[in-house]
Write a structure and sequence with these properties.
Layout: H1 2-26, H2 29-32, E1 37-41, H3 43-48, H4 50-59, E2 62-65, H5 71-74, H6 84-95, E3 99-107, H7 114-117, H8 122-139, E4 146-151, H9 176-181, H10 185-196, E5 201-206, H11 213-228, E6 235-238, E7 241-243, H12 248-259, E8 264-273, H13 286-306, E9 312-317, H14 326-331, H15 348-358
Parallel strand pairs: 1-2, 1-9, 2-3, 3-4, 4-5, 5-6, 6-8, 7-8, 8-9
The structure holds (3S,4R)-3-hydroxy-2-oxopiperidin-4-yl beta-D-xylopyranoside (XIL).
(3S,4R)-3-hydroxy-2-oxopiperidin-4-yl beta-D-xylopyranoside (XIL) binds at residues 66-67, 151, 168, 207, 239, 269, 326, 329-330.
């Protein structure tokens, strides 16, 4: 009797412990969501900051290469590729059973300066573009299963960006691709990527769609045209760099329209800027945090509602902690756009995002 009750007690303790462990595990983002939850990861922090690494491992099941596979990093010279950062990121992700999303193969900004000095006719430029795409995609064939093939090809008014990107505070005159290889370069980038890895999921990725119906139309027209011409495309990325002023109706509109293409839909770079007016003494008050929490929850809720399950590629946060956010770096202002603080502890807004993921 004494023995039995000892066993019974042990069983109760084991069950109790399991349920606590389970409850804690359930609270992470990856275990709350019915689709992958990603983070744009910084390779240096991943390798050298234990707190950063721990949170990436526990909370996320998809990793996007933040900068490791952009031209400037991966193709620093005409005849030299440098895969060291990309390889570290991909190894880390695969060793830990995370999906890897490659960002990005072609963009009109963030290109290495040697490209400015490259001389050649349109065939030489075309060859450069094709070689870049196919070298990078082949290097990660079977490892990187999804790619942002082209990033930000359209302007807010829906026109193809020809003379410089307008996004993310940049106005870059170095808008080489459409000028040098022609307006149909986007389609050829998809063809080249598909030739290098026919199994990879190929995405077109762009910003500001929630505030630019004209850009949404341009993207949908592009998809219709690609389907007609049998150009391979599998998905669309909405960056969703939101602010507290982003109209909810715009988020709904963009998600609904893009989901209507039947392609995979990736919220690919989510963050919510709070100090969008760049006030030097801005206070990240409870009221601001509440508004931000509501908007985070709204995005999740709309994604679940408007994107059919089989099209849900996932939601990716752009950076992990507020201290690493690209917004602080690019716009040179204090801001608190993410779910984790400077020490990688969960912020109150984390809870609303996580709860929204869990809701049926
Ligand atoms: C940003 C990175 O996060 C920064 O570290 C870098 O300095 C600039 O680029 N849209 C994109 C991303 O598609 O590639 C950008 O990433 C953020 C905006």
């Amino acid at each position: 009797m004494k023995y039995l009750s000892g066993v019974g007690l042990a069983a109760i303790v084991v069950l109790f412990t399991c349920s606590i462990t389970k409850r804690q595990t359930d609270k992470t983002l990856q275990n709350s969501a019915p689709f992958p939850i990603g983070v744009a990861a910084n390779v240096r922090l991943l390798l050298h900051n234990a707190a950063y690494r721990r949170v990436v491992l526990t909370e996320f099941n998809s990793i996007t290469s933040e900068n490791a596979l952009k031209w400037t990093t991966v193709h620093p010279d005409y005849n030299r590729f440098d895969f060291s950062a990309g390889d570290s990121l991909v190894k880390f992700a695969l060793d830990n059973h995370k999906r890897v999303h490659g960002h990005n193969l072609v963009w009109i900004v963030h290109n290495p300066s040697w490209l400015n000095y490259f001389k050649g006719d349109s065939a030489a430029w075309e060859n450069l573009l094709k070689t870049h795409i196919q070298t990078v995609v082949s290097h990660y064939k079977g490892k990187i299963t999804g790619w942002d093939v082209v990033n930000e090809a359209f302007l807010r008014n829906g026109n193809l960006a020809m003379s410089g990107g307008e996004g993310n505070g940049k106005n870059n005159a170095n808008c080489i691709w459409p000028k040098l290889v022609g307006r149909d370069y986007v389609a050829r980038c998809f063809i080249y990527a598909h030739q290098a890895d026919p199994a990879a999921l190929l995405f077109y990725n762009d910003y500001g769609q929630e505030v630019s119906p004209a850009k949404v139309s341009a993207i949908i027209n592009m998809v219709t045209d690609f389907k007609r011409r049998s150009i391979p495309i599998n998905g669309l990325g909405l960056q969703m760099h939101l602010t507290l002023a982003t109209p909810k109706s715009g988020i709904t509109y963009a998600l609904k329209k893009l989901a209507g293409t039947g392609l995979l839909i990736h919220i690919s770079e989510l963050d919510i800027s709070t100090n969008q007016n760049n006030q030097p003494n801005f206070l990240y008050s409870d009221d601001v945090q509440q508004k931000q929490a509501d908007l985070f929850a709204f995005v999740v809720q709309q994604y679940k509602l408007l994107v059919p399950e089989k099209q849900q590629y996932g939601i990716t946060l752009w950076d992990l902690g507020d201290g690493d956010s690209w917004i602080r770096g690019t716009y040179k202002r204090m801001d608190w756009p993410l779910l984790f603080d400077e020490k990688y502890d969960r912020k109150p807004v984390y809870n609303s995002f996580q709860k929204a993921l869990q809701l049926k």
